[in-house]
Structures are given as structure tokens and as C-alpha cells.
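Hi there, hope your week has been kind to you so far. It would help a lot if you went through both lines with me. No rush at all, and the record is pasted right below:

***
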Amino acid sequence: MTNETIQERTDHLITDLTNKFVYSSVLGVYNGDSETSFLVILHNTSPNEDRKEIVRLGKKYNQESVIYVKRATPAIEQLIFTTGVDTGKIIEAGSYSELPANVTDNYSSLQLCSNDSFTFTINFEFEHVIVGKTEIKTQEIVDHFASNRMINQRNQKSGICG
């Protein structure tokens, strides 16, 4: 997609988010490619409906995946694939880690104040995938992300935008 198409799609997503949720934009760097991501604050009055809506928006805007986190005991932290061959697969996490501001890959950075930010990563268990109600051990997702990383690095070296 062209940068203009990406910006137009982002503008439409912002409109959809603004109509239903409170959100902040986040700088995300994944597998060597940076992008604008969104941290959406869910209402938690109907978490199943919020989760369905976030997945629906991911599909609508052709996002490979969305991250859903629900405050509970234990917390629910899921990477939900919304498009492509992995649609419907879920990767769970057990925690997040705060990272130093100078980290270079696989992080999200949220601007808190004019000169302060919070840089973090969610610790997903990519070797375990949930398909339906079955958890399976796989190398497939790990290989997928490794392939994306190599493509992004090659594109950066040749000057091709992602």
C-alpha cells in the first residue's frame, strides 16, 4: 500500500475508535518495521463485546492481529490473529516488561507527557497457539515472525517502505 492509502485507512480507524473508545496512539516496532499502533481503553462493562469489536476492527482494517488485554486474576493477554492464514489463532502472554527507551525492536512506546514515555513489550508465548479451544505447540508462528523480520530488514537496506 502507498503511504497515502495507509494514512487514509488510519484516519478511518481513528474515526471508528473515536466513536466508541478512548485511545492513545503508540509507536510500535515489530520485526524491524515501525508503525503507528493504538492503545484502546476498553470499558470492561461488557468485555466479550469489547473483544469482539476490537477483533472486528482488526479485520475491517486488514490488521494481521490485535492485542487484547483484560484486567482479571490472572490477567488475560492475547494476540489474536484477525486476517491471513492464522485468522482465529490466539497467542497468550503472561506478563509485560518495561524496556529501556533505547531498545530497537519488538516494543511499543506510549508518550505519557511531553518529555516522558513508557516503552514496553508483552511477553507472548509464540510457541503455543490456541486454535478454537485447543492449545498446540508449534514453531509455525515463530518462523512466520522470523520471515517477516528478514523481509523488513532487506526492505530497509534497499530503501523499500513497508
